[in-house]
């Protein structure tokens, strides 16, 4: 098994550049720590290259994804009186709402 921290692809300069782009002010000690941590992370990701995946079917999701929505079936409408029953204001046929734009 490869040493996860032995991934030299990330340099201190790379981390400094990303920090600058992200507008992060890093101390030299933080820059060294983050460089080592990112190298280790990429080293662990690189270990996935060693996993035998020849017999594994390609998939878009790790689990089976199905449409869980119900079929769109028309149902009877809510009666107007029931819809307006709890309205703060109505004229018997429509909801009444305060005017929010300048009017005439």
Automatic annotation (TrEMBL):
Reactions catalysed, as given in the entry: L-glutamyl-tRNA(Gln) + L-glutamine + ATP + H2O = L-glutaminyl-tRNA(Gln) + L-glutamate + ADP + phosphate + H(+); L-aspartyl-tRNA(Asn) + L-glutamine + ATP + H2O = L-asparaginyl-tRNA(Asn) + L-glutamate + ADP + phosphate + 2 H(+)
Enzyme Commission identifier(s): 6.3.5.-
GO BP: any one term: translation
One Pfam assignment: GatC
GO molecular function ontology, one term from the record: transferase activity
InterPro entries registered for this protein in UniProt: Asp/Glu-ADT_sf_sub_c (IPR036113), GatC (IPR003837)
Domain of life of the source: Bacteria
EC category name: ligase
Record function comment: Allows the formation of correctly charged Asn-tRNA(Asn) or Gln-tRNA(Gln) through the transamidation of misacylated Asp-tRNA(Asn) or Glu-tRNA(Gln) in organisms which lack either or both of asparaginyl-tRNA or glutaminyl-tRNA synthetases. The reaction takes place in the presence of glutamine and ATP through an activated phospho-Asp-tRNA(Asn) or phospho-Glu-tRNA(Gln).
HAMAP family: GatC
Summary of subunit composition and partner proteins: Heterotrimer of A, B and C subunits.
NCBIfam families assigned: gatC
Name by which UniProt lists this protein: Aspartyl/glutamyl-tRNA(Asn/Gln) amidotransferase subunit C
Native species: Alienimonas californiensis
